[in-house]
Amino acid sequence: MFKSIAISASILLVGDTSAFAGGYMTPGDEVPLIVAPQEPQPTAENWEGLYLGGALGYAFGADDRVGITPPSGGRAHSPGSVDIQGVTYSLHAGYRWQRELRGRQFVTGPELAYEGGGADDGFFRPGESASSELDSLLSLRWKAGILNMAEDTLFYGTVGISRGEFNYSVVAAGMNYKGDFKDNAWTVSLGIEKRLNARVSLFGEWEFRQFGKTALSDAAGYETQATPKHHHIRIGANFSF
């Protein structure tokens, strides 16, 4: 009998020790759930806001053939061409809005620019001379483009209007005109802009400027038409605020 009681006590002691070793839990205890931290979702690069910039450019590809019509009419005399070309400089300011469009970032906004420089051309021969010079250009353009997947490069296009001031002279075939004129042009361009950091970006751009025909006449009634349409490329930098 005593032997049976001793065996039973030993079993109970072993059972209690196992319970304590296993960390006995009361019915109200809960096992804590460990959740791995989630990585933050990437945010879109912010191109929105005011920016200022400057650029150096080059005008080329003009087509301005001088044609002189006498007061009595008849066939025009064409002594040559004044196809302006040369280095330009410009300053500009703009504002951009940024929106998501079908999973891509769309950037758009206006830009106002002033341009000067030395885009000109002329010919000078005995008894005949002519010259044309782009003195200044004021442009208002609307820019729109799409960012690449990394959102650090903008591919864009623009449409706009420019008002140019030109110095012009023709002395040939009886005509003697020296003066200046202003003309409007519609413009289109394509460009690419690469962001270096949150504030600074570099860009390159091609633009076409479609000026119309401006009739110019001297005191004697001789007339010519200036047609200074041309292409233009520029490279520059933008500074965002």
Summarize the structure.
This protein is mostly beta strands.
Architecture overview:
The protein is built from one helix and 13 strands, in the order αβββββββββββββ. Mean pLDDT is 88; it is low at 1-15 and 17-22. Strand 4 and strand 5 form a beta hairpin. The termini are far apart. The protein has 241 residues and is mostly beta strands. Strands 1-4-5-7-8-9-10-13 form an eight-stranded antiparallel β-barrel. Strands 2-3 form a two-stranded antiparallel sheet. It is elongated and about 110 Å long.
Please give the structural blueprint.
Blueprint lengths: L1 H20 L27 E12 L4 E4 L8 E5 L4 E16 L2 E14 L2 E6 L2 E20 L5 E20 L2 E21 L4 E12 L2 E4 L5 E4 L3 E11 L1
Antiparallel strand pairs: 1-4, 1-13, 2-3, 4-5, 5-7, 6-7, 7-8, 8-9, 9-10, 10-13, 11-12
**What proportion of the residues form beta strands (DSSP E)?**
over 45%
Distance between the termini: 96 Å
Number of DSSP-assigned strands: 13
Order of strands in the sheet with the most strands? 1-4-5-7-8-9-10-13
Give average pLDDT, whole number: 88
Provide tags for this entry.
8% helix, two-stranded antiparallel ribbon, 1 helix, 8-stranded antiparallel β-barrel, 241 residues, mainly beta
